[in-house]
Amino acid sequence: MKRTNRMIATLICAMTIFAMAGCGQSTDSKSGAEASQSTQAATDQMRDDWEKALETAGEARNELSSTLKNAKSMIKDAASTDDSATLQSAIDKTQEIYSSTSVDSDRPDSSAAAYQSATDKLNKATTTLTNQTTALTEAIATYRTKLPAMSYTVTSNEGYTYDIKIAGLNMSASVDTTKGEPGKVAVAYRDSGVTHFTITNTTAGKKAPLNWEDKDDSLTGNFGSVEPLYSKNPCGDAGDDGECESYIIGGKQYWIPPQATVPIRAEEDSPVVEAHQFDVDESTEGDSCLNEGQSCGGSLTIEQTVSDQMIDTLRHPDGWASLYMIKEGYAQTPYNAGANLERAENAGSGPDYYILAKTAGI
After folding, report:
1. Per-residue pLDDT for 156 more than 70?
2. Model-level pTM?
């Protein structure tokens, strides 16, 4: 009996020890699995952070590229001045930073440490690119303030008022070698793309229609056509004096090259265009001649021997004026009730214009 009891006791002990050992093994496996899951979760998070950093860095690089391209176009073929030289210096520095700051899109190995290192490099690149975009944008803004500017108020017949501010007026000109017969060249000219405008609804406590000329028309209103004015006829060297429009302003004659108009109107993707109206005190702004499809210029074919002279003339207008065509007898023509605005009298047979504003020297 005692022998039997001892055997039973030994068996129970062995079973107990086995069970305890089994439980201990199960706990270790669970802890290992949890640790593995935690490590994988951390790696997944690092991968997500890297992907977001890569996207952000790519966007920052694209933004700097676009700003750099715009800045180059603003002074390309424009008159050389101390101010344009300052902007060129900022462009050169930006180009250096853009070229030397890479965005590495190669996926790192699967470790969390590798993802973290790659993410840190991308974040550093983003900071460098973004800071330089800001610096170049500020340089462009400073350059713009050195160029001709104007401001004026547009008033509709119904009494809606809009304040217009325009800055950065400048002309560029260059030879277009793709046009012209032997011995002749085409001189292309356009607003250099620095022009920036703001249109603000200043009608006291009221929303205002998008089209101030006809409040029931949803089309974008024209808030002036800014024109470069030349006291010397640029078309004279082209052998066609009549190709340039001519106006008498303040008793002096000026000429405007064909298609040199800088239109002042709300951009198609702006909120005011989508809403077909301005909210109370709402403003919209834009860079008129940087819009896709907006040329703000034309060309004249001339003798190659006088191309340098023509280019210099076109780059240096006497001044600028914002004009609005007078539509005689048309009820919606603003200011038609005897407003004391100065007129630009057409020297030919075309219509006269109201001068909404003009720069010094005109």
Report:
1. yes
2. 0.78
